[in-house]
């Protein structure tokens, strides 16, 4: 027993002296209690402990495909991680790049190679910024003081509200990336509001293909965050608006695949607020606001409790609430990737 204790002490002593010596030379308090407690703490913490900023932000239930570890998201959000599937060629390259090679000089002797500074990515690009939802998103972002661009085919909206002149209006078709790819250079986050109703083909193309093109182009240009205004399906029969929902889900798949760490999918139902049509303003809130209020009241809870009917009813959301949440999600790395339903969007807007 005594022999064992002496052996253990002989094993531990050099490493303790080594650590405390190095720590002292950096002016770090390396008292034994502190060293022991920090090592104990690090053993007790789960290896995937995440920064407090991401804790408590739930991933939406049913966020299929967003099942990667939150540890990886947290590291990626801080711009430090490059996550590769183990065993892939990319993983091998990354590993060997991180290991010091016998021929490479030690770190301290290596010459610093001056690199040209990458562009500062502090701009938001709203695709469809002259539409109903996109206009409110541009307005919310301008009011926050962000740099904002909008991409759409017809340029700025017809009205002249003060925020319009603070947006950089890019005329272009999302289906033609060469005409607008350059506008992504300094973009931190993209918010896509492209969608349409019409024939099956139109809806599939505009809700699906257009957004898939936008996602692919943004990912190729190194955009970190992408917010997609999708839609809740509300359990409608499959033949109702089939092209619309097929298109939306196709775009969602592209986001999960291409931007797994920064893709956020909003699934609202009816969005209400003031919609401008030419010189007219349609007050959609006349219907939407009372409905939203009902859902927020105790009566709303009763409706949700109804068998069959309840799950089909998703409350409407005010366009300003959704716009605020979209800007936050596109700018803020602590908003985790995944699907957000109308309740989560509302909660995010309250932050
Ligand atoms: N409104 C609702 O109640 C509601 C509910 C749930 C989900 N959503 C979704 O929210 C999104 C926004 O809806 P919204 O009501 O604001 O629609 P909207 O007013 O019709 O706006 C659509 C925008 O997309 C742009 N656009 C269309 N095709 C384009 C293309 N090929 N290239 C570039 N820009 C293009 C349009 O501008 P140009 O025509 O000038 O190109 C317009 O700015 C849609 O995806 C919709 O499905 C809406």
From TrEMBL:
| GO MF annotation list | protein-containing complex binding
Under Pfam families, the record lists: NAD_binding_10
What GO cellular component is one of the record's annotations?
mitochondrion
Annotated NAD(P)-binding domain ranges read 128-258
For this protein, the record's InterPro entries field holds: ComplexI_NDUFA9_subunit, NAD(P)-bd_dom, NAD(P)-bd_dom_sf
* GO terms for biological process, alphabetical: ubiquinone biosynthetic process
* Low complexity composition-biased segments: 96-110
Question: Which organism was this protein described from?
Answer: Klebsormidium nitens
Ranges where the record places region Disordered: 87-116
Q: What is this protein called?
A: NAD(P)-binding Rossmann-fold superfamily protein
């Amino acid at each position: 027993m005594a022999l064992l204790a002496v052996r253990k002490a002989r094993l531990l002593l050099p490493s303790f002296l080594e650590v405390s010596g190095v720590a002292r030379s950096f002016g770090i308090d390396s008292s034994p209690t502190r060293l022991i407690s920090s090592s104990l703490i690090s053993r007790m913490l789960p290896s995937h402990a995440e920064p407090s900023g991401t804790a408590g932000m739930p991933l939406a239930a049913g966020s299929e495909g967003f099942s990667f570890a939150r540890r990886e998201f947290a590291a990626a959000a801080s711009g430090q991680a490059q996550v590769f599937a183990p065993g892939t060629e990319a993983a091998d390259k990354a590993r060997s790049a991180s290991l010091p090679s016998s021929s490479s000089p030690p770190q301290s002797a290596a010459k610093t190679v001056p690199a040209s500074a990458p562009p500062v990515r502090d701009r938001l690009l709203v695709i469809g910024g002259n539409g109903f939802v996109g206009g409110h998103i541009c307005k919310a972002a301008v009011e926050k003081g962000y740099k904002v661009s909008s991409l759409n085919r017809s340029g700025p909206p017809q009205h002249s509200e003060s925020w319009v002149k603070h947006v950089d209006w890019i005329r272009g078709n999302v289906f033609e990336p060469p005409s607008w790819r350059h506008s992504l250079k300094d973009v931190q986050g993209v918010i896509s509001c492209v969608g349409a109703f019409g024939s099956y083909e139109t809806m599939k193309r505009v809700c699906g293909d257009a957004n898939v093109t936008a996602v692919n182009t943004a990912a190729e240009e190194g955009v970190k965050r992408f917010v997609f205004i999708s839609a809740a399906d509300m359990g409608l029969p499959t033949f109702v608006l089939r092209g619309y929902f097929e298109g939306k889900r196709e775009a969602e798949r592209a986001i999960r695949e291409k931007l797994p760490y920064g893709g956020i999918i909003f699934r609202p139902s009816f969005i209400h607020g003031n919609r401008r049509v030419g010189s007219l303003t349609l007050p959609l809130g006349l219907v939407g606001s009372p409905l939203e209020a009902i859902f927020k009241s105790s009566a709303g809870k009763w409706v949700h409790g109804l068998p069959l009917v309840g799950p089909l009813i998703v409350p409407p959301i005010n366009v300003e609430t959704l716009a605020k949440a979209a800007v936050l999600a596109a700018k803020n790395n602590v908003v985790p990737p995944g699907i957000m339903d109308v309740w989560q969007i509302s909660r995010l807007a309250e932050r």
